[in-house]
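Record type: monomer structure entry
Structure origin: computed from sequence
Chain ID: A
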Amino acid sequence: MDLSKEILNVTLDMSMEFGENWLKPIHERLHKKYTEISSEDLEKINSICKEVNKFANDYVYKSGSVINKEISFVDFKKFKVDILLKYNWISASNLSHLYSQSCYYAMK
């Protein structure tokens, strides 16, 4: 199966959900939406999303600095450029969500 940008973005969005689905596997939710996806592809997609989240979280965490007790992170524009160099399929809304979630986790 061709992993379209749409499927990858829907899955990435699912992987970043808070609430009742927070940190839960995406397989079942994704299979309900795209019944034609094989178990093998579900695993592949899940791995891609974990990789993206880890990359973004590490990127933001390593960019952080504390000046006068204020935490600052890499500028969103730089984050966007660098993330899209590696994962050019990520939508604008997912980029924004990924950045804010990565900043949130970096502060914890």
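Annotation 1: The two ends are 38 Å apart (CA to CA).
Annotation 2: The mean pLDDT is 87.
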